[in-house]
Amino acid sequence: MAKFVIQKSGPLEGVVEISGAKNAVLPILAATLLSSEKCVLEGVPALKDVDIMCDIIQALGVSVNRSIEESKVEIDASVINTSRAPDHLVEKMRASMVAMGPLLARMGKAEIHLPGGCAIGDRPIELHLKGLKALGAEIDISENGLVKGKTDGLVGTDIYLDFPSVGATENIVMAACLASGTTLLENAAQEPEIVDMCNFLNKMGARIKGAGTDTIKIEGVKSLRGARHVIIPDRIEAGTFMVAAAITRGTILVKNMLPDHVKPIIAKLRECGCDIFMTPEGVVVDASDRELKSTDIKTLPYPGFPTDIQSPFMALLTTVEGHSTVIETVFENRYMHVRELNKMGADISVKDRCAIINGGRPLKGTNVLATDLRAGAAVVLAGLVAEGVTEVSQIYHIERGYENFVEKITNLGGIIKRVDD
Ligand code: EPZ
Prior knowledge:
Helix 1 packs parallel to helix 7 and helix 6 packs parallel to helix 7. The chain folds into two domains: 2-18 and 233-420, UDP-n-acetylglucosamine1-carboxyvinyl-transferase, Chain (Alpha-beta prism), CATH 3.65.10; 22-230, Alpha-beta prism (UDP-n-acetylglucosamine1-carboxyvinyl-transferase, Chain), CATH 3.65.10.10. The termini are close together. It has helices at residues 22-31, 48-59, 87-90, 100-107, 126-134, 166-177, 192-203, 235-247, 263-272, 310-317, 336-343, 373-385, 396-399, 405-411, and strands spanning 2-7, 13-17, 38-42, 63-67, 72-76, 109-113, 138-141, 146-150, 158-160, 182-186, 207-209, 215-219, 228-230, 251-255, 275-279, 282-286, 296-298, 322-327, 348-351, 354-359, 367-369, 389-393, 415-420. The protein has 421 residues and is α+β, with helices and mostly antiparallel strands. The radius of gyration is 21 Å and the shape is elongated. It has a four-stranded mixed beta sheet with strand order 21-22-1-23. Residues 22-23, 26, 95, 121, 123-128, 163, 165-168, 189, 307-308, 330-331, 373-374, 401 line the site of ligand EPZ.
């Protein structure tokens, strides 16, 4: 198994270009199943999760023509010869579940295995299924966890989401696009990736209003045409590199990012004492020669502080004198990085959903695990400032969600290399 070997590095300095958003391209790839015409996606990052979603679509009989060099994918879903997503691919990626809505809408049938839990929580999908049932789908879950959906035609209706689930919002909106009549989805997720997906769907001829608010109205149409779309920049990758500037007390120009998508991260980094300003080329995070201050974060659905930046930000807080607190409200078990950071000498204690960081103790390099995608990013950032050498194993988690992570960190002066065991 490969690992990252990281040495104590100086302040990260220079320019980083943000890639397309993983959490936008995954639902948008699923959305291409709604049209029998060709779609062209640009700004598609080279990530393991994107590989898996493309493999799933191809396994359904759809033609997928991908150019990694050009960050481009052409999808022609004129023919879909099965609605059964292959288990061996679905079990690799929970987000496969967002193919349920489009398949039901286009084919009247969908069979996808329950994705199961992961390190950060059980990841149930009852809100997805409740919404699809409300649209008229019959859903059955077999003994071995195969979710089978079928319908003679979805019918628009009013749906209230008990929790603003990103995946459930995506599944329901995509299914409602081809339903007969109008769907009003309330307490919907408001993430920028939902807006990007809805922008793509509207280019295909969907009639969606309110994306980005908690109420989304979808007027069903008979069919959707093909479309071309450029994926929005990845706000979580952008936030990760903004935190990287702060933890190393460096200065980084983050290019190809949308500041509006990271307002809570900007606010919290400024609270810590970073100088953050916009330039025509991008966002500059300047933490050079600064004594940063402790702060408190609480994760919330968008537009609140993003849960996906909780672990990298916690790594930063271990290097800041004083007590900080982190409250994770979105996932029930998203503190797997605490044990790894404490192995490096951090002093973090967790009680219920609250982590208390007694920051300012020097971190020491050691062998640590990437327990999930964002926890992996956290220990990499910690390794850049820890004394000595840090070896991070299970890096397949990290390579799911950060394109050219080693190259980007190296170009900023970080000492990191990928080693195959
Ligand atoms: C998406 O996951 C993202 N993944 C996650 O990013 C992100 O952390 C999450 O949204 C929250 O922003 C993708 O977009 C591929 P949810 P998703 O449904 O859709 C509970 C990353 O690191 N819930 O909003 O699975 C659920 O258990 C990943 O890039 C139910 O209880 O998130 C969780 O506690 C990690 N029932 C909370 O809601 C349901 O039916 C948020 O889940 C659905 C969700």
